[in-house]
Amino acid sequence: MAITRRGFSAAALAGAATLALPAVLRAQAKPRLVVIGGGPAGATVAKYVAKDSNGAVDVTLVEPLPKFVTCFHSNLYLGGFKPWDALAQDYKLAGYGVKKVNQMASAIDRDKKEVRLADGTVLPYDRLVVAPGIDIDFASVPGWSAEAAEIMPHAWKPGAQTQLLKKQLDALQDGATIVMIAPPNPYRCPPGPYERVSCMAHILKTKGHSKSRIVVIDPKDRFSKMALFQEGWQNHYPGMVEWMDPKMHGGLKNVDPKAMTVTTDLETIKADLVNVIPKQMAGKIARDAGLANASGFCPVDPTNMKSSQDPSIFVLGDAAIAGAMPKSAFAANSQAKVVAMAARGELTGARTFPARYANTCWSIIAPDDTVKVGGRYEAKDGAIAEVEGFVSKTGETADVRRQTSEENMGWYSGIVADVFA
Predict the structure, then answer these.
(1) Pairing of strands 320-321, 298-301
(2) Which residue, among 20, 13, 36, has the nearest Cα to 307 in the 3D structure?
(3) Which of 3, 9, 64, 146 lies deepest, with the highest CB count within 10 Å?
(4) Contact criterion met (CB below 8 Å) for 36 and 115
(5) Mean pLDDT of the chain
(6) Which of 150, 128, 102, 57 is nearest to 285 (CA)?
(7) In whole angstroms, what is the distance from residue 112 CA to residue 91 CA?
(8) Nearest to 46 by CA among 86, 89, 101, 9
(9) Could you tell me the pTM of the whole model?
(10) Cα 180-241-167 angle, rounded to 5 deg
(11) Could you give the CA distance from residue 155 to residue 149 in angstroms, rounded to a whole number?
């Protein structure tokens, strides 16, 4: 199914249509919803609760950044398919009644139902949405650290790290060796590292760097869209990409930022650029509030994304354990529509309906060669389960791949309008 900006927006609005039912207000002051995190999860919840409650709910969005730089499509910036400015999105939610607080949330007091901000201000809530995204586990890669990331960037959170990686990539000379250290499951955007490899290879090919190579050190023996990426690498970048699973490299032993080396049980590789994508976990505020389990991520009720630890809190997006759903912007936006319906129902007495979730992830392999994977999901047997799935096929025609590329660009325009405008 082709997805254009108009089509995505229409589908998104149809999914949220149930939110527009008449509210049954309680005989008291406006109920208060506080949302921590202004990405595709949090900003969507804030927008739709404010919009569809017609001002019946006091909605506050806590997000320190004046603009949101999308991590989704940041690989396209690395590959030269998009300019940096195209990733930065303005918040245009005030017209719906959303009050945006440009600060960091520093703590959650679950007993008092309060959020403390960086300047000491306290925000009371009746319901709280926690959508802080991910934190990077710097200790998960031997020899690496937050300081080392200024030499060997992760670029897995948008901003200066992404620009640093782009600068390093563009400065390479022919014959360079790039090493990517791929992350263990679960992590943000399962196909993302391999789309990044494709975008890096595209830059090298465009510059005529036929002697350069990209080595992927992976802790996994399989990855999302594996056959599609490997087919694409062979077709577009033959001999340039070497993917190594644990049986091949024997395990990552150390990285040395000063020497620019990566050591595995098999060998020590001298690199010109090292992209470390490490283990990830839910944002600190969620972990500090006791919303995460031993995995570092937050268990939730699959019927409404409510925290398993606190009935007044919803956790969604990359921080949540969402069963079969991947950690993606599409998934976060879909979960947010369910949370907005559930929160509004609890705060105003509005009618709610069974949760339905969806996801699609597009990945660029080369110009006009894009692949996708996705599905529909429902709460089943105590988890979010896939009820229908799809994935691009190897050997597809150039015309199919071109259409998928157009879908990808149309989806981006549609989702940023749906979330931020």
Answers:
(1) parallel
(2) 36
(3) 3
(4) yes
(5) 94
(6) 128
(7) 30
(8) 101
(9) 0.92
(10) 50
(11) 9
Backbone angles phi, psi at 201, to 5 degrees: -60, -35
Where do we find the tokens 């509004």?
Answer: 344
Task: Give strand pairing partners of 89.
Answer: 68
Q: What is the dihedral of CA 362, 151, 138, 187, to 10 degrees?
A: 10
The answer to whether 338 and 304 have CB atoms below 8 angstroms apart is yes
pLDDT range class, residue 28, cuts 50, 70, 90? low
Which two tokens mark 209? Answer: 């760097």
Residue pair 205/167 in contact (Cβ under 8 Å)? The answer is no
Long-range contacts of 210-213 (CB under 8 A, 24+ apart): 210/174, 211/174, 211/175, 212/172, 212/174, 212/175, 212/176, 212/177, 212/178, 212/240, 213/176, 213/177, 213/178, 213/239, 213/240, 213/241, 213/242
The count of other CB atoms within 10 Å of the CB of residue 101 is 21
Tokens, residue 192: 């993302």
Pairwise CA distance, residues 182 & 224, whole Å: 12
Would you say residue 337 has pLDDT above 50?
yes
pLDDT at 17: 39
Task: Give kind and range of the element (H or E) at residue 338.
Answer: helix 329-348
Paired sense of beta strands 32-36 and 58-62, if any: parallel
Rg from Cα positions in the chain: 22
DSSP 96: G
Q: Read off the amino acid at residue 121.
A: T
Length of the chain measured in residues: 421
Which contiguous run of DSSP H or E holds residue 36?
strand 32-36
Q: Are 241 and 197 in contact (CB under 8 A)?
A: yes
- What angle do helix axes 192-206 and 160-170 make, rounded to 10 degrees? 30
Percent of the chain with pLDDT over 70: 93
Q: Is the pLDDT of residue 24 over 70?
A: no
Tokens 């997006």 identify what position? 317
Q: Give me the residues paired with residue 315 across strands.
A: 130
Helices marked H in 102-250:
160-170, 192-206, 226-236, 246-249
pLDDT score for 23? 34
Q: DSSP states of 225-285 as a string?
A: THHHHHHHHHHHSTTTEEEE-HHHH--EEEEETTTTEEEESS-EEE-SEEEE---EEE-HH
pLDDT in tens, 208-236: 999 999 999 999 999 999 999 999 999 99
Token pair, residue 128, equals 């709280």
Q: Beta strand pairing status for 298-301 and 280-282?
A: unpaired
